[in-house]
Amino acid sequence: METAVELAPEAYPCRWDDCAKLYTDPELLYLHLTTDHVGRKATRNLCLKCHWADCSVETVKRDHITSHLRVHIPLKPHHCMYCNKTFKRPQDLKKHEKTHTEEEIQQALATQHYLQPSPTGLQPLTPPRYPQSDKSLTPNHINQHSPSGYPISPPQSTYSEGMPIKK
Question: If DSSP codes are grouped into helix, strand and coil, which group holds residue 32?
Fold first, then answer.
């Protein structure tokens, strides 16, 4: 006899103790885990121990258990802006980004690599970070000029239009 998992290879089963729900998307499975199994202190159903298959991780904070749950599901929403690798947790992405050389970072910024769509079609969840060593690349230090070379004026307020000016 075939099980539901064998019939639907795209199905993601919940392997929490005494739960047999199937999901078609890893994000839906993660939402189920955080809502139905981890819960919240405010609703008096907070569980800080992982009951996924043979896992026995215990945490002291809800954020820690929800972060831990990502190791059990194939969901990688955090994208490296320099090489398009994906990660399950933001701290893993941050650690990975430190492995890129200054040259790779400068090249990525120069080609605006972080603005190109990733292979998954998802945009980065965090805004691009600029290297601390070259302040000339940060948005606050960019000389904003129009194509003709003249500085761009700041946007005008619509609140003052039609209002008499007090002298």
Answer: helix
Q: Where in the chain is the domain with CATH 3.30.160?
A: 4-72
Asked whether the beta carbons of 73 and 29 are under 8 A apart, the reply is: yes
Q: Please check whether residue 12 is in contact with residue 23, taking contact to mean a CB–CB distance below 8 angstroms.
A: yes
Chain segment 57-114, per-residue pLDDT in tens: 999 999 999 989 988 988 888 899 888 899 888 889 999 999 988 888 888 878 754 4
pLDDT in tens, 133-166: 444 343 443 444 445 555 555 444 444 445 455 5
Q: Assign domain 4-72 to its CATH architecture.
A: 2-Layer Sandwich (3.30)
Burial class for 72, CB neighbours closer than 10 Å (0-12, 13-18, 19+):
buried
pTM: 0.53
